[in-house]
Structure formats: structure tokens, C-alpha cells
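Reopening this ticket.

The earlier resolution said the output was attached, but the attachment link was broken on my side. Pasting everything inline this time so it's all in one place.
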Amino acid sequence: MTPSQNKLLKAITAHLKDRAVPPTITLMAEKFRIRVPSAWERFKALERLGYLKRRSDRLYWPTGKASRVSPCPCCGHKEEQG
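Inline output:
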């Protein structure tokens, strides 16, 4: 997982915790000051890696794999736990 993907996943899970629904791609694009197509690519990459799943409501929801991401003790970079 790249640092930008890690930041996005962290923002998605925080939004979900605060509001009980995941954010839209447009909202995350605005938050990170990137274009919507770039944000969409990051969402798709996280889906390919198994951290997000697009459901019938057309929103990307974190998977169980996303909850197994923990910070690296040396630099804070997120790494999947075994």
C-alpha cells in the first residue's frame, strides 16, 4: 500500500466512524485536493488490494482486511498484520 492509499483508507474509515456511511469519491477528492479521476483510481487500487469493497449502494466500504492495517513502529507507515 502506498502512503497516499494509506492516507485515503484512514480518511475513509474515519469518515465512516464519524458519519456511519463511507464518503463519496468526490468528497475525498476535495479533501485531498486532487481530481476526481485520481481519487477514483486510488479507490480502485484499494479495492484491488482487498481493502475496500464496492457495494450495491455504489459506495466503497472498508473490508475486514482494512481493520488489520497497523502502523509501522519506525515510521508510521501502515502494514498489514499477518
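Reporter confirms the inline version is readable. DSSP finds four helices and four strands in the chain. The chain has one domain: 3-80.
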